[in-house]
Amino acid sequence: MAGLLLAGAVFADAPIRLNTHQQAPLSFRKDNGAADGLAVQVVQCALKQLQRTYTIAFLPWPRAQWQVQHQQADAFFTATPSAERDGYAVLSASILPYERRWYLLKDYPLSPSSGDFKLQARTAAFNGSNMDDWLREHGYQLTSTPPNSEQLVRMLLNHRVDAILGNAYVVDALIAKMGVQEQLRSELAQSLPFGVYFGKAFLARESPQFLTQFNHAVQTCRAK
């Protein structure tokens, strides 16, 4: 019994291993290597309130999730809910409001709300996101899954696809950076919670109150 208690104490003192991916303005590395972004700031604030140490690794999104699934990391963010993720992890309270939006060239004649769009439009979403699964599950013509949102936008501008489904924070920032606002339009697809998925193996090692405490800290940090 003493050995089990000691092992639990060691786990509780170990840094929480967080995975994310490069998607400004939500999560990115500054020139000095430090992690920053709208989502990173909320997570850092919450863990500081809990007086917990942590590491943040930037990985391709599929790998960031795979590591948590296989207990090589403790959590990944920023993520929307899915049944697959729920099998091995638990989603925190929402750390940011989130919109999933369609982006199309301004002269594209169809609306995503039309039946013809689902049958005819060539769509894309980045690899490993809930969005590519959602497009498949809902019968859209998913034709490409590039590794990041910048490639999505460039595919759209080059007429390789008719529409992309993207994270509004990230895609809006890319469009502004590229100066192509006048060429594109967008329509809301879904509003969803956007949180941290903590691995069930990690939570089993933690105090039963950890997730409740983290969620409370998130609400406090969001209010700042």
UniProtKB/TrEMBL annotation:
It comes from the Bacteria. InterPro entries: Solute-binding_3/MltF_N (IPR001638). Gene3D superfamilies: Periplasmic binding protein-like II. Pfam families: SBP_bac_3. Residues 21-223 form the Solute-binding protein family 3/N-terminal domain. This is Substrate-binding periplasmic protein. The lineage of its organism: Bacteria, Pseudomonadati, Pseudomonadota, Betaproteobacteria, Neisseriales.
